[in-house]
Amino acid sequence: AYSDLDLITALMDAKKNRNIDGILVLSPHPAHITLDRTLLYNLVDARQDIEALKDHHVGQLGQGLSAAYITPPTATAVMLILQEYQVKLYDELETQNSKGSKRVSRNGLIINRSEVLGKPLRSMLEHRGMNVIAINHETDDELVKRVMPLSEVIVTAVPTIGSGVGYRIPT
User: Fold this and answer.
1) Strands 90-94, 101-105: parallel, antiparallel or unpaired by DSSP?
2) What's the first-to-final CA gap in the chain, in angstroms?
3) How far apart are CA 90 and CA 171, in angstroms?
4) 116 to each of 19, 64, 79, 136, how far by Cα in Å?
5) Strands across the sheet containing 107-111
6) How far is the C-alpha of 78 from the C-alpha of 101, rounded, in Å?
7) Parallel/antiparallel/unpaired status of strands 90-94 and 131-135
8) Rounded to an integer, what distance in angstroms lies between the CA atom of residue 107 and that of residue 133?
9) What is the DSSP string of 61-124?
10) Within a 10 A sphere around the Cβ of 110, how many other Cβ atoms?
11) How many angstroms separate the CA atoms of 141 and 15, rounded?
12) Is residue 110 helix, strand or coil?
């Protein structure tokens, strides 16, 4: 098994190797790895950060900016699916005084708050005009029951119940 030092050394070696195009730091880490995952994400060169989890990418995404090297691929895939199906994130309403239109946000619900999908997707949707609530398996069922009927767009990406960490929408 790799030690913390072995893992750091491997990441640093990969970072220096220009023949390596991408590095994926999986999470959760094995129990014997005691390093903070944010530290590990930040050891990866921004150009090699496949999941866009390095602080550099997270910060740019939070500001609504495109990352210089990569955008979070899973969240980007969801955005492309929404675009392909022409899902509206907001409505343009004509104003009463005929001076143009007013943008009215639609309500979205993301059932996932992970660093890989939920957080970047929420940021992407919000920066494109949607009101977004993100929940996970720890969210109170009564809150979920109140929020779901108000949501015009629902995105879910959670493990199956059989995995032991799944989520079932309360009814």
Assistant:
1) antiparallel
2) 44
3) 27
4) 25, 17, 14, 14
5) 131-135, 107-111, 153-156
6) 28
7) unpaired
8) 8
9) HHTTPPPSS---HHHHHHHHHHHHTT--SEEEEE-TTSS-EEEEEPEEEEE---TTTHHHHHHH
10) 25
11) 43
12) strand
- Bridge partners (DSSP) of residue 32 are none
26-64 pLDDT per residue, tens? 877 888 999 998 899 899 988 898 888 888 777 777 776
DSSP-based helix, strand, coil % in the chain, nearest 5? 40, 15, 45
How many C-beta neighbours within 10 Å does residue 45 have? 19
Token pair of 54 as six digits: 């390095």
Name the residue type at position 16.
K
Amino acid at 9: T
Distance CA 126, CA 61 (A): 11
Spatial distance between the Cα atoms of 134 and 155, rounded to a whole number of angstroms? 9
List pLDDT tens digits, range 11-31: 999 999 999 999 988 877 888
Residues 158, 59: Cα–Cα separation, whole Å:
24
pTM tops 0.85: no
Question: Tokens 């493990």 sit at which residue?
Answer: 159
Distances from the Cα of 21 to the Cα of 32, 65, 70, 95, angstroms:
27, 23, 12, 50
108, amino acid identity: G
The residues with which 111 forms a beta bridge, in sequence order, are 135, 156
Work out whether the CA dihedral 17, 48, 21, 7 comes out positive or negative: positive
**In whole angstroms, what is the distance from residue 166 CA to residue 35 CA?**
26
